[in-house]
Amino acid sequence: MNAVDTNVLIYARDPRDSVKQQRARALTANLTDGALLWQVACEFIAASRKLTTVGYTQAQAWGELEQLRVLWKLIVPSENVFVRAEKLTANHNLSFWDAMIIAACMEGSITHLYTEDFDNSVKHATGVEIVNPF
User: Fold this and answer.
1) Which domains does the chain have, with CATH numbers?
2) How far apart are CA 4 and CA 13, in angstroms?
3) SS3 letters for 43-69?
4) What is the structure's pLDDT at 17?
5) Per-position b or e across 73-83, b if 16+ CB within 10 A of its CB
6) Rounded to an integer, what distance in angstroms lies between the CA atom of residue 99 and that of residue 86?
7) What is the pLDDT of residues 73-96, one digit of tens each?
8) Is the model's pTM score more than 0.90?
9) What share of the chain is helix, strand, coil (3-state, %, to 5)?
10) Cα–Cα distance measured from residue 2 to residue 57, given in angstroms and rounded to the nearest whole number
11) Which of 55, 75, 117, 130 qualifies as a FRET site for 98, CA 20 to 30 Å off?
12) Which phi and psi (to 5°) does residue 129 adopt?
C-alpha cells in the first residue's frame, strides 16, 4: 500500500509553489492502492487552516478529506503504534510524530510513504520506503 504525508496533501492545495502543487496533485490523483493515515488526516485539517490566506476554506478541507476517505483505506492506529513509535524514536532518532507515522505505516502494511519531511534511513528496519516526490 501507498500513503502520503500531510505535506503532500497541503502542497496539492497551496498555489504558492506551483511546481510542488503540480507534483502533489499528480501524485494524489494517480496514487494506487492508497491509504490515509489517521494522523495525516488530523494534521491535514489542522494545517489547512494556514491556507485560508490563499482562499482555501475549512469546508473545502473537510470535503476533500471525505473524498480521500472514500478513495483510500483509512488506517486507524492501535495501541501497538505507541510501542513501535517509542522504539523508532530511540533507534532511529525520529521525532515523536514522524515515528508515529512510520509505526502506523508498519501496522497498516504501507510499503511507500511519500513525504519530504525525512529520509529513507528507516527502510531497512521498518520495510517502509520513504519517497520524496519533490
Assistant:
1) 2-131 (3.40.50.1010)
2) 14
3) HHHHHHHHHHHHCCCHHHHHHHHHHHH
4) 96
5) eebebeeebee
6) 7
7) 999 999 999 999 999 999 988 899
8) yes
9) 60, 10, 30
10) 27
11) 55
12) -90, 130
